[in-house]
Amino acid sequence: MALVYSEWAGPLLETINADIANRSTLASSLLTPIVYGADLFGDEAKFLTGNFGFDGYIGVPRLMGANAEQAAAEFNVAWQTIDPTLNPTLRALTSAGGLVGASGTYATRLMLADTMPLVFSFPVLPSYLDADGSDFEVTLSDGTTVTPQIAGLMPNLEHNERQTVVIMGDFGNRTTPGNAGAKYPISVAIVNDGTPLQMIGRSGAVDAVGLSIDSSNSYVAGNGPRLVSAKLNLYSDLGEGGPVGVGAASQNNSGSDSYGDQAQYRLRLYTSAGFSPDGIASLMPNDFGRFFQLKATTGSGESVTITETGVSYAIGNQGMVAVVGLADLAPAGTPLNAAYVEDHDNYYDVILEGDRNAIKSLSAVRMPSGNGYSAVYNPGGPGNSPNAPGAAPGPFTVPSQDHSIPISFDLDGARQVTFVESDGAVLRNPWNLQPVGRLLGTAVEDILTGQTILAYIDPQGRRFFSSFEASSSTATDLPGQRAQLSVIDLIDISDADAESDVNVSGSFSRSAADVSVLQWYSVSDDKGTVVDPLSGSILKPGEPGYAEAAGRRADLISDNTLELTNSKIAPFSITLESGAIYAPLIINQTSGERYFAFAAANPDKLVHFTGFGANGWGMEDGYGGGDRDYDDLIVRFSLGV
Q: Quick check: pTM over 0.90?
């Protein structure tokens, strides 16, 4: 076995196994701090696609009743014709979700909701994904913007599959652009909802706020599903599997489950949407030759096309390559018939065996989608009998087109990442979001690639595991003379439930000789206007008495003084009343000066704060701007009720 586990791996394996054994049927059960052996499909965090998936398929009334086929037709979702003696499940008969089932899974009423799969290059950190969809904003063709009703990882639920988020809501209709009444998404963006979404990259956590992409319409010809990446690794089981309660179809479906020791290499195909031969049916383990080709090039420059499963292809004098079969489908051993149901996620694994040099000669994957090859649809396709009497009228989503994508090689596993928090959220470096911890040792080592997962413990005694080096507890010392400054994020809880206090928590660091303290005070707007609680006067930054009024507002908040030893990183938590905006106030106790996020209020009238991404900022606590490294105090916060 290629994976070797040390004594330090115990808590990691306990966390992973407990998560896999979770029998909760709620989609929110996936929002745990686990990214385990996940692929990086690029060198930076970005959207790969964010397209309109399909209209009105989630939350279909009466779909789980005795007249489900008629209900499907009434609500315009496709239905599959299957021999009833095969005892097909509902998912074998339709890709739509029933009102009761979908609403129960997502713990909110979903009625004829639309979907958009958001396909990213990096895995998201599930514990920072908000189930209410507030991390995302969708712009529609009529110029309006909407927040999704739901965001979740299903069906991309395995621990190494967390690069795709599916959002649900009302995003449009099936009327194609240019026709009266057409409405559809034109773009989607990640926004700061108070708990900013994070992704995990090669060096650790990444702020995802601000990423965006234009959306295509899956009801328009040419916009069918496609491959977005093809990544080749030595085969490993690391990260396979996910919680059984919501992912029974994802259990025991790996390459080794299906093919044992023949699984030498894994070519992971990453897709813009789930693939189906008709929008409902599943791809099967022996379907490689129905949909795909692999291209290889010999040392002399000749092209070799691999088209069949179980056939060894000679690649010049580099050796042999064979496609063993497809994996990451249904559990191994599931009967191969029309009732076969795979996990319908955004990943398909082509399992390969052969000589290393021959494997390295592979160059591209092609989906001809015609001329003897089958096209694929996303789950909004027509099914196998769209013209049956009484069938749904459509329209349905369009099929794939002929396309190819180059193969990316990662035989040393350098573009696979792990971050698992076993004891709850760990302390983060507020400058770069990296977890803070003391190295305990190597927990997992892949003896084939040399990749390791390291065991750490943070200053609060919480254990975590990562494929990257953690931050020390020493504050980051930034270079001075920073020229580019940006406005900081204030704590805006003006729209929060008036009956709920809001917990603001995070981390802060200190890198300055002077002793300063941090307080918060409420402001009336993002310009910093305050109401003096003593006189009732309304004051703007720079007006006489502003600093004193701000101080009096800060005094109204309990436990509102944060102080930190120089060169250290520490956690903080404070409870604030909802219905207000809060700004930071820094008091330099050495000089007695007070500094604000609004330049006009500062004694030197200079900018002393700059933003460091979503909900992060740094500041200078010396008159005249100091050395302008903005690391005298660095703060990163998140909101919670």
A: yes
